[in-house]
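Re: the multi-chain job from yesterday

Posting the exact lines I submitted so nobody has to dig through the queue logs.
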Amino acid sequence: MSNREPVPFAQWDEPEGEWTLPGACPVRSNRTLMLEAAARFLFPTVLVFSVYLLIVGHYAPGGGFPGGLVAGLAFVLRYIAGGESEGAEIGSRFVVRPPVLMGLGLLVAVVSALAPAAFGAPVLASAKVSFDIPLIGTVDLVSSLLIDIGVYLLIIGVVLDLLRSLGSGIERDAREAAGEEAGP
Amino acid sequence: MSTLVTLPVLLPILGAALTVLAARSARTQRLIGIVVLAAVSVVAAVLLVAADRTGPVVAELGGWPAPVGIVLVADRLSALLLLISTVVTLAVLVYAIGQRISDYGRETASTTFHPIFLLLSTGVSLAYLTGDLFSLFVAFEIMLAASYVLITRRTNASRIRSGMTYVIISLTSSLLFLTTIALVYAATGTVNLADLAGRVAALPEGLRTLLSMLTIVTFGIKAAMVPLHFWLPDSYPNAPAPVTALFAGLLTKVGVYALLRTQTLVFPGTGPSTVLLVLAVLTMVVGALGALAQDDLNRLLSFLLVSHIGFMLFGLAVYDARGAGGTALYIVHHITVQATLFLVSGLITRRTGTVSIDAMGGLARRSPALAVLFAVPALTLAGIPPTSGFVAKLALLQAGATGGAATAVVAGFVVLASLLTLYAMVRVWVRVFWGTEKEPLPDPDPTDELVVGTARASRPMYAATVALVAVSTAIAVAAGPLSAITEQAGADLMARTPYIEAVLG
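And the result, structure tokens for all chains:
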């Protein structure tokens, strides 16, 4: 029937583990203590900042796209600090496959664009809810925040996919090429 | 009703999201793609009926009225083109699924193909429906970004080179488009097409001509108008058959649609446009002569595609209701027939293992069904009565004959280009299907999807091709009501008021 091999789908798309900084890296010269330490502090801070950007986006500069990019940069920082060491591919370790994040983000955005139509409002219309939160004051939540959340997830997915394909993917290819040359 | 207008744009995105999530189940992905495109076809048909009965259907996104907000408008022209485009897209998807199954088996999934394919469909739908110059740019970008992926998927070095040509040309034209939008906005303070219709008229003559020419060049690149066509025969033939069919069927025609819309709504002329008439003649003749010089079947079809873009430009250049209506009818006919021809070419190359016409021969004896499948769209493209090509060309020729001396002369070139098309097609027929039978060539590169040697073609591939031939026949059968709609669409385009009143209220 077919003279070709099926596409080896699982080989490159399988989740490989968790996101971690290197616990034990055999090649010391490849590590930079300063960057690793800074990354540990910066990673959560940058993520919180990205969520802030996401939420203020409706009235102030920010929104899902910049928020997602900033969050993506946090992962880039972590990838650069953790880098690639032999046997521990930090950059390619995900619990969630990036395409799933992209798909989810797109789904959330489209569904929240269509949802107003179910209530008889025009597509993409938005509603506003105000909360009085002690210490913070009045917070306005707009339903179009959902679209921003979708975009936020989508952009994180894109950045992670780029890290995987153009970061660790290229390093892995290079290592395989080097291995072939050294091998028999 | 207004929610319905947004569905052709939003449903494919929804489908794209779901197919990304269902990346591990090939069956689910295929089902989602087919269901979504079938649903969009139904929506487009409903929109066409509604637009024909009660005038343009308008959706104001987020409830913001034009010209502040973004509007989606389905009038006769856009609903009709949306319908035929989606039907063709659906058929091409079925063909692509069939090709995938016959090459790789039933159970292999693809992470990219289905989402990207649906996103391309989103871009096409948005381009037809948008009532806003900037959204039109966004639509082109969605369409092009998806096409970059499709043209360079599973590729090799030589195809990367031709893919690069395509990407660079498209990026250049996008840049030009963006610059044009900036200039239009600076001059008028709006990007809403209906609003522009009024404001551009108040601009000085020179500025208006400049903006008009810029849009002609921008959309001319996308539509592959001579002398801006050179990228097309170089890049389209280097993609797998279903992708080429989709690009050839839809992408250039979206460029023609944008040209038709902007030239009639925003930059209306008073009589036949000399510039467009000259460009139309050049496009028709250069494309047809180029086709005669080709040995590669797909390149030949690509040159014919360029040639027939000239026919549509001609209808627009005549600049009256008949001409615009003729162009609309021609686009409908040509989307179907050009996609069919590329799909058939894909089936032929799977039989012969080559795209070179010289290396083929005697195919009619080995597969008579294929011979019939090629003959029908080939004659349709050439415009032999009673096919849809004849009906569409007749509409154009009538417009040319009544448009004045200049258009009557150009109508002569339409006949000439039709004869050249017929000659090219007969030449292909004689060399591919008659003559001594030649042995099929083996697959030169198993990792490449372009030429797949003597791989078998599964049933969905034939079914999709036959379905498109049937659609093209249906266009000829329904020529009466269809040309009534396109004539009315042409009258709407020239009158401009139905569109403007529907959008601005």
